[in-house]
Amino acid sequence: MLYESESGNLTLAASGDTMITRRLSVFREPRFVSLIELFRNADVGYTNLEMVMHEFEHSPGLAGGTFTASEPANLKELQWAGINLVSTANNHSYDYGGDGSLTNIGHLKAAGLVFAGTGGNLSEARAPGYLDTPAGRVALISASSTFHEAGRAMDQRPDLNGRPGLNALRHSTTHTVDKRAFDGMRRVSRELGFESRNAAQRRFRPKGTVMEEDDTQISFLGRKFLRGEEFSTSTTPNRRDMEENLKWIRDAKRMADWVFVSFHCHENGQSMDDPPEFLKTFARACIKAGADGFLGHGPHVTRGIEIYRGRPIFYSLGNFIFQNDTVRWQPASNYESVGLGPESTPADFYDKRSENDTRGFPGDSTYWHSVVAECRFEARKLDQITLHPIDMGHGKSRSQRGRPVLAEGRVMRVALDRIRRLSKRFGVDVQVKNGIGVVRP
Q1: CA 42 – CA 376 distance, rounded (Å)
Q2: Where in the sequence of the chain do the CATH 3.60.21 domains occur?
Q3: Residue 195's pLDDT band (boundaries 50, 70, 90)?
Q4: Residue 27: how many CB atoms within 10 A of its CB?
Q5: CA atoms of 309 and 441, how far apart (whole Å)
Q6: Phi-psi domain of 310 (left: phi exceeds 0; alpha: psi -120 through 50; beta: other)
Q7: Quick one: pLDDT at residue 319?
Q8: Distance between CA 283 and CA 237 in Å, rounded?
Q9: Cα(358)–Cα(365) distance, integer angstroms
Q10: Euclidean distance between the first and final Cα of the chain, in Å?
């Protein structure tokens, strides 16, 4: 062989959502150091960067929940920890508007940290980021199904600039109900005048983009309903968004040795544990198009693993760094949402939001147990996935929790039992050996 990368060997250390607000390099617990070495020893250390790196120089955008911000110096902390590839398409990409998104991109470029998922226009947001490693050139494409419409990147036009934002994958939802419920909605729609409003709106929309209502389907309160025998919900990815993303996967396949897709998705199927149908459709299409792995995240909990055509699909890797309640400042609207005034401090807001750590994320341990997936490829084939359970300190003080260490004891068992149970739904057997999970295709 002329080049090492011709061997087709690669190790990827993949983690979920990173909401970092504090330094990492000052800590020295053995279980933390061992976790860091896992990333440093891999060819690719990946995480979803769910923080906008800036100095609060921009006004808040149209986000909800935590308005994310972190000191740009924390990018160096991630690099210290072995992270060399990050995704930026997520529901917090636009927390501080288009200017905040562009500032985040500027800091990533200044740090030399390879990223994908956001850009000054839609083409930039959809384009891959490229990481050079001894094992070959690695491409990352990053998209999100959870976003505010104002944060969706838009194309350039000959007569107008594009819009900064994220690479969005839209989807449609169809609800099926029985005849009794369907007839009830038709009656409500008729009596309250919804049908006439819908007809007026249809006149101003492009032909073919609006569902025609008849005796089997209706648009009610902005949702699509079909008449059937029982109740169900189905979701499908937006065809244009999916095809455009698949185009970039095929492009990256010709430009790099390895291609991975990152996807941020808060939506779910029957429960939070289940990925929605549109996500499964998109993930499998990505593998068919040439992706070597699909790295899901978003719900802040782990979901199952699928091996599709010999490639891994992680429907959610859960959290990795979870410091969302030590963001330095929050906008006035957040304080008002919990009944606090301008005299209140950030700690007041976080205490009130979680009712002193009894509700929301701080009140549920599920969000604080996760895994880091180490994927080993040999001769271009997936040889093994090793799942390392991590503990992010549920129940600890706000100043301590959120930083991951390798899990032990009960937390280790709970984290691995969960992902083993959820992966069985996809026919994947996770064997637990010596405190880690092992998957062999």
Answers
A1: 9
A2: 8-157+239-329+364-439
A3: low
A4: 12
A5: 10
A6: left
A7: 98
A8: 11
A9: 11
A10: 27
pLDDT in tens, 114-142: 999 999 999 999 999 999 999 999 999 99
For residues 320 and 16, the answer to whether their CB atoms sit within 8 Å is yes
Amino acid letter, residue 301:
V
Angle, vertex CA 31, rays to CA 25 and CA 34, nearest 5: 70
Residues recorded for the chain: 441
Burial of 140 (0-12, 13-18, 19+ CB in 10 A): buried
How many Å apart are CA 70 and CA 68, to the nearest integer? 7
HEC profile for the chain? CCCHHHHCCEEEEEEEEEECCCCCCCCCCHHHHHHHHHHHCCCEEEEEECCCECCCCCCCCCCCCCCCCECCCHHHHHHHCCCCEEECCCCCCCCCHHHHHHHHHHHHHHHCCEEECEECCHHHHHCCEEEEECCEEEEEEEEECCCCHHHECECCECCECCECEECECCEEEEEEEEHHHHHHHHHHHHHCCHHHHHHHHHCCCCCCCCCCCCCCEEEECCEEEEEECCCEEEEEECHHHHHHHHHHHHHHHHHCCEEEEEEECCCCCCCCCCCCHHHHHHHHHHHHHCCCEEEEECCCCECCEEEECCEEEECCECEEEECCCCCCCCCHHHHHHCCCCCCCCHHHHHHHHHCCCCCCHHHCHHHHEEEEEEEEEECCEEEEEEEEEEECCCCCCCCCCCCCEECCHHHHHHHHHHHHHHHHCCCCCCEEECCEEEECC
For position 113, what pLDDT does the model report?
98
- Res 178: pLDDT: 87
Pairing of strands 369-378, 10-19: antiparallel
Please say whether the beta carbons of 14 and 42 come within 8 A: no
Cβ neighbors of 103 (< 8 A, separation 6 or more) are 52, 53, 54, 57, 58, 96
Q: pLDDT (tens digit, 9 = 90+) per residue, 416-438?
A: 999 999 999 999 999 999 999 99
CATH code, 8-157+239-329+364-439 = 3.60.21
The pTM of the full predicted model, rounded to 2 decimals, is 0.92
- Residue 276 pLDDT: 97
β-pair type (436-439, 381-391) = antiparallel
Q: Which amino acid type is present at position 130?
A: Y
